[in-house]
Design brief:
Blueprint lengths: L1 H38 L2 E4 L11 H8 L6 E2 H12 L10 H9 L3 E6 L2 E6 L3 E4 L3 H21 L1
Antiparallel strand pairs: 1-5, 2-4, 3-4
């Protein structure tokens, strides 16, 4: 009888420990999910916010270059002529703009076989929630905690 009672108490202790650990794990995962939702609201590219003056060389470069493919100078000039109908007197006049944008980290350059190629570099921006949204989230959390305390 004593042995039977001891075995039951040991098994009962393990069941209580399992319930306790399951609650702890659930709370940790809920907290991590809430932090991710709370911290980041939107993700944008820096290119969404850059505005170049219309019909300038920088505007033309930003319009014809993409994020995926490497484009050489001949292709850049061809695209500018096709899209905007603009030709430059000096063929090398785009290089200072490309160099400046590359030095700023907005574009990437690559030299393959002695020919320079460029593409846009995608910088992502995390936009966080406003203070009003954070207050609403904190209030919702406090109401949730109150309900859990009342039900327990």
């Amino acid at each position: 009888m004593v042995l039977k009672g001891l075995v039951r108490s040991i098994i009962g202790f393990f069941h209580k420990a399992d319930d306790w650990s399951a609650k702890e794990e659930k709370q940790v995962y809920e907290a991590k999910e809430e932090e991710n939702v709370e911290n980041i609201d939107e993700i944008h590219s820096i290119w969404d916010y850059l505005n170049f003056r219309a019909n300038t060389q920088a505007f033309h470069l930003a319009s014809v270059l993409g994020f995926d493919e490497w484009v050489d100078m001949i292709e850049i000039r061809r695209r500018i002529k096709e899209i905007f109908g603009a030709e430059y007197k000096n063929e090398r006049s785009l290089y200072p703009y490309l160099k400046t944008l590359t030095d700023m980290g907005l574009m990437e350059s690559n030299s393959i076989g002695g020919r320079m190629q460029w593409r846009k570099h995608d910088h992502l921006i995390n936009i966080k929630k406003t203070a009003e949204k954070r207050i609403a989230v904190v209030e919702a959390k406090s109401e949730k905690k109150k309900k859990e305390e009342e039900s327990a």
